[in-house]
Amino acid sequence: MSIGAVKGVEIGSGFQVAEMLGSENNDAIAPGGFLSNNAGGILAGVSNGEEIIVRVAVKPIPSIHKEQQTVNTANEPVSIKVGGRHDISAIPRIIPVCEAMVRLTLADHLLRQQAILTSE
């Protein structure tokens, strides 16, 4: 969770699998490949050759015009109202940041695997 504002990450069917039966979640395999991709391309932490599908949940922008409750430096309750939206640029920018994080993670694991293979 090293990307600010990201509150959840799911791979494949993600959180939806908690409401599925094992028979619904299993990705049956046929001679031509998998018949579904609930695993999102990752089985037991390893790519299964299917498309890797990752989704993120990003928290809403906190600087809104609506009056909100907080505390001041003396820990006294106060109300604040932000004039204007100062951080709306976070939404279009989060997509390439998340894509880059996935790529870095995949590259990291590839290099780890290569290190193991070359040390044998």
TrEMBL record:
<dbReference type="GO" id="GO:0010181">
    <property type="term" value="F:FMN binding"/>
</dbReference>
<keyword id="KW-0028">Amino-acid biosynthesis</keyword>
<comment type="pathway">
    <text>Metabolic intermediate biosynthesis; chorismate biosynthesis; chorismate from D-erythrose 4-phosphate and phosphoenolpyruvate: step 7/7.</text>
</comment>
<keyword id="KW-0456">Lyase</keyword>
<comment type="similarity">
    <text>Belongs to the chorismate synthase family.</text>
</comment>
<keyword id="KW-0057">Aromatic amino acid biosynthesis</keyword>
<protein>
    <recommendedName>
        <fullName>chorismate synthase</fullName>
        <ecNumber>4.2.3.5</ecNumber>
    </recommendedName>
</protein>
<dbReference type="GO" id="GO:0009423">
    <property type="term" value="P:chorismate biosynthetic process"/>
</dbReference>
<dbReference type="GO" id="GO:0005829">
    <property type="term" value="C:cytosol"/>
</dbReference>
<dbReference type="GO" id="GO:0009073">
    <property type="term" value="P:aromatic amino acid family biosynthetic process"/>
</dbReference>
<dbReference type="GO" id="GO:0008652">
    <property type="term" value="P:amino acid biosynthetic process"/>
</dbReference>
<dbReference type="Pfam" id="PF01264">
    <property type="entry name" value="Chorismate_synt"/>
</dbReference>
<dbReference type="InterPro" id="IPR000453">
    <property type="entry name" value="Chorismate_synth"/>
</dbReference>
<dbReference type="InterPro" id="IPR035904">
    <property type="entry name" value="Chorismate_synth_AroC_sf"/>
</dbReference>
<dbReference type="GO" id="GO:0004107">
    <property type="term" value="F:chorismate synthase activity"/>
</dbReference>
